[in-house]
Amino acid sequence: MYREAAQAPAVVREQLGANAARIARLAARLTARPPRAVVTCARGSSDHAATFARYLIETRLGLLTSSAAPSVSSVYEARPDLSGTLVLAISQSGASPDLLTTVSTARSAGAYVVALVNAESSPLAQIADEVLPLRAGPEKSVAATKSYIASLSAIVQLTAAWAHDARLTAALAETPALLERAWELDWSAGVSHLERATNLYVIGRGLGLAVAQEAALKLKETCALHAEAVSAAELRHGPMALVRAGFPLLAFAQNDESRAGVLQLAAELAARGADLLLAGGAAAGVTVLPVQDAHPVIEPMLFTQSFYRLANELAIARGFDPDHPPHLSKVTETR
What we know:
By secondary structure, the protein is α/β, with parallel strands linked by helices. The chain is built from 14 helices and ten strands. Helix 13 links the parallel strand 8 and strand 9. It is globular.
């Protein structure tokens, strides 16, 4: 896991150049024939990338984006009307049966399918209309790291080209170097705070919610730590009842319109005596994790990269092998 996560900067650097022509072609098609909506299809870490895609596409392109529930097709055998939609299928392996059923059903229902997939010869790549290779290379650790970062960068590259956002395109070009810096940041304070924890909330909002989801999953699968991802906007709607003195939390606050609200919440949590780790911004009474400043869309990628190093270190400190979580395999064949 450590070695593969450290490869993310090189993966993104290679991906941006290798996919440039495909991205330009796809962006031109989507501009000429705009879809009526975007539907994402993914599981696990890839579904967290889909959360990121939803916020990015809706805020940059104003286009309704929603996540497909694979069981609708694979279990209930329903056939929603997806004519005129763009389906973004995101997968490392491209082999999960329910994902393939959903994508096949969507395509037969009139959707245009774009697969963001690491395994270019996978069944998913074969049935898609267009393939955007993640180009992450072999990933042997069960916990996805570099392929997740590659999914985010592919989503940003496509959205920036489609929206004709030159500033975001330029920011993405700087991302490999920024990922290298993010990997070197010292988040070891998180180990001492979480080494003996049994439960925690991971908080994000907007584009940062995807980081919270990914971090919560990694803490569960690599550290055997029960973690729940919660939107900063949702914490007050019930989950706050569990927060008391010493309750551990990890919060992400990228520098966009959502940051003020997250920092206000952080201050409230600290006032309750919660044990809060904060990446992005600062608040009284919290432990601040160092971050690499960047374009607000890029910052969630950098938070994730710094977090992966922490997760690996925390897993070892808690006595677990981060590469081989119990009861899990690299390809999950959900039906």
